[in-house]
Design brief:
This protein is an alpha/beta fold. It is built from 15 helices and twelve strands. The chain is globular, with a radius of gyration of 23 Å. It binds nicotinamide-adenine-dinucleotide.
């Protein structure tokens, strides 16, 4: 179902007010779409965020995210009086934590924001309220760290605690939020029921209940699995490149096997999940996660290989004008988190003042004007659909274009 059909579907039925207050802590890529959906399903939703841009946008009835449908949902939720945002926390029936969980320089998980929000909740929490953590967290983090941390502040209370990891992909947030399956792990039957009641109002995928650690691990292994699959494609690309054979051709032939589905090689893995989450399990048990460590090493090293290739190419051309196109971690989105193309570009522009790095999803200049300049080389780092259309429209000489996403061909 398209995002447009999903929006029509939401508004076909008039979802009555539920008189349940939900605070979503962290109104970013994960928390904000969830908050917008919940407010349009009749929950009284407050977004708690430290970023004033998020708070202002929501309180003006718009979204701070650029995805299709978000502004519309924000406007509708706001107009119903069921959506607002603030930078201080008030008591709620349900708290949903969706703050970042990056890695530290030593690759261990940084759960400071989750602890910070839990500390805030502990100050307003009342008996029978439920805390749901959607942020991705390390194995056993709920039982060993988060619940004990909360109880160290509120030792007199019986906390209802849930972990329900998010699986959405930016660019298809609305579809995935509603149609993806979801796991709900909790510390009591009552906490699981509270979370189930909330998610089942809008989730059309399967909802499975579990223990806390099962919910934590399923999310982490999902992303480790994806990283390994990408590493297989990249390893084939490295092998074939070394032999002077087309990896795309070999992968396409291999995929004729009914039970083989090798992914496409690329310039590395970006985004907020796949390059980070495998480290949570590698750190937890380095001995039994060697395949995940190898996958991380293979995928993160592609960035260096592409940089070296481009550096050589540019140096060989002398002092030439080079346009690098694409900064995001994948095509047709504005997300630059952990983006290999951004890192490659940042290193390349240091080589010469005549190297320009541009992304129409990130920068404000007019791409069609920019490509008209007298470039000696145009490098594609991300295959945004508009690049190909523009090159065709403007009759750019194909010999000037190098597609770095096919570095191995
Ligand atoms: N982005 C994805 O596609 C995705 C998918 C699945 C899971 N996740 C996980 O969801 C979690 C959130 O990711 P995201 O992509 O929404 O991050 P994000 O950076 O887009 O948004 C996080 C929001 O939290 C706010 N914030 C940070 N610290 C805060 C604090 N202490 N108190 C209140 N607000 C705070 C930030 O201002 C920001 O608006 C992470 O654990 C991530 O791994 C992300």
């Amino acid at each position: 179902m398209s995002s447009k059909q999903i929006l029509d579907d939401i508004f076909k039925k008039n979802h009555p007010d539920k008189n349940i207050k939900i605070t979503v802590l962290g109104g970013g890529h994960v928390g904000q779409p969830l908050a917008l959906i919940l407010s349009n399903y009749g929950y009284n939703v407050v977004i708690y965020d430290l970023n004033p841009n998020v708070v202002h946008a929501i309180n003006e009835g718009r979204s701070s995210l650029e995805e299709f449908g978000m502004d519309f949902l924000a406007k509708k939720g706001f107009e119903r009086g069921l959506l607002s945002a603030q930078s201080s926390l008030a008591t709620s029936d349900i708290y949903i934590i969706a703050v970042p969980t990056p890695i530290k320089p030593d690759f261990s998980a940084n759960i400071d924001s989750v602890l910070n929000t839990l500390e805030k909740i502990a100050q307003v929490y009342r008996e029978n309220q439920t805390i749901i953590v959607e942020s991705t967290i390390p194995p056993n983090c709920s039982e060993s760290t988060l619940i004990p941390f909360f109880l160290s502040i509120r030792p007199e209370i019986k906390v209802k605690f849930v972990h329900s990891p998010e699986r959405i992909i930016p660019g298809q947030t609305l579809e995935e939020l509603i149609y993806n399956s979801r796991t709900i792990g909790g510390n009591t039957k009552e906490s699981i029921k509270d979370a189930f009641d909330v998610y089942s109002t809008f989730v059309k995928g399967q909802i499975t209940t579990s223990t806390l650690i099962e919910a934590e691990l399923c999310k982490l292994f999902e992303n480790a699995y994806r990283d390994v699959n990408i590493a297989i494609a990249n390893q084939i690309a490295l092998y074939c490149n070394n032999k002077g054979i087309s990896a795309d051709r070999i992968i396409s032939l291999a995929n004729n096997h009914p039970r083989v589905n090798i992914l496409k090689p690329g310039i590395g893995v970006g985004g907020h999940c796949i390059p980070i989450d495998p480290w949570f399990i590698i750190q937890d048990d380095p001995v039994n996660t060697t395949i995940f460590k190898s996958a991380r090493t293979i995928n993160s090293n592609i960035e260096n290989i592409v940089f070296n290739k481009l550096e050589k190419m540019i140096n060989k051309m002398g002092d030439s004008k080079v346009l690098l196109l694409g900064k995001t971690y994948k095509p047709d989105v504005a997300d630059i988190r952990e983006s290999p193309s951004l890192n490659i570009g940042k290193r390349l522009v240091k080589l010469s003042e005549n190297i320009v790095h541009f992304d129409p999803y990130v920068d404000n200049d007019d791409l069609s004007e920019l490509v008209k300049e007298n470039w000696d080389l145009i490098v594609i780092l991300v295959s945004h659909s508009q690049f190909i259309q523009l090159f065709n429209q403007q009759h750019i000489n194909p010999e000037l274009i190098f597609d770095a996403t096919k570095w191995y061909e």
